[in-house]
Amino acid sequence: MKFKTIPSFYFVLGFMLCSAILGNWGDVHADCILMPEALKALESDRIVTVTKVTVAQWPEDSNFYYVFKPRYATPTVGFIVYPGAYAYPEAYAPAAHAIAAKGFLVAVVKMKQDLAIMSHDRAATVINDNHSVEKWIIGGHSLGGVAACFYAYEHLEMFQGIVLWASYPAETSSLAQTDLKVISIYGTKDLGIDAIKASAINLPPDTQWVEIEGANHSQFCWCAGEPGENDIPDITREEQQAEINEATIAFLNQFRGNTCPARHLLGRDNAQLSSIRKFRDTVLAHNAVGQKLIELYYRNGEKIISLIERNRFIKMLAKILLSAVAQVLKLSA
Fold it and tell me: Are residues 181 and 321 in the same domain?
């Protein structure tokens, strides 16, 4: 379905209306002081690599974005994050790091004057820079999500889905008639909760809604400071972030093919997988040989699955052996 491009004036108008409804989030984080967790998550580790990418064509004071990628696989699904108003991209590093660890490329974009409305088209550069990614999901926090929706509205052919963190689209960029997959994650203590729920009219009918009990607006990122008087949470930032990440990862999983033979054999939610993944992350990933084995495993995952499916006996034997290995790993943990 094709949509007529809406004038920038109407986007700005819709953005301003959303700003008013979403409340004083920008005031709360006008001076975003990054928390230690945010700075720590900017460091590469044995599971995720973090790269600061400089873009020569962007203004010097906002000419970069961060890319978080898993070491053990080449991601085919990418997630672009637009920060909330006046929040630095680094404030979303812990979430980006956690999501990338599950096999996704995550890009968090620096915005002009730290306002996504000033540079909502920056996703195009991220996409052009990362050709290995086959499917793109865009999203953002608060007003960053508003800008992400607008860009997706004008470039439907570029995206398969949208992730909204305490956000929603402006009426001028309604996504109700699109084929995009959408998830809206918000907290019960968010000042803008009524507006978020009312935005259903501008989202596809099959939008996934995730309400986090006790979560507020500002804890979607890692900026220090006391929450506003209308933004007091009932849960900790760590608890809120864990639920945000879990819901986001589950949503993103639908866009990628299965390149993990173990998950194919045991099932996505099989409890035995946790033992295997723990061994991967705590043992194999801690040495060069193990890292190479992990890389080869995921790179050839589809071929291994295809081979298993050709012979029922091989599939049954592989499943028995894998279950036995998982049990041994669990007992030795």
Answer: no
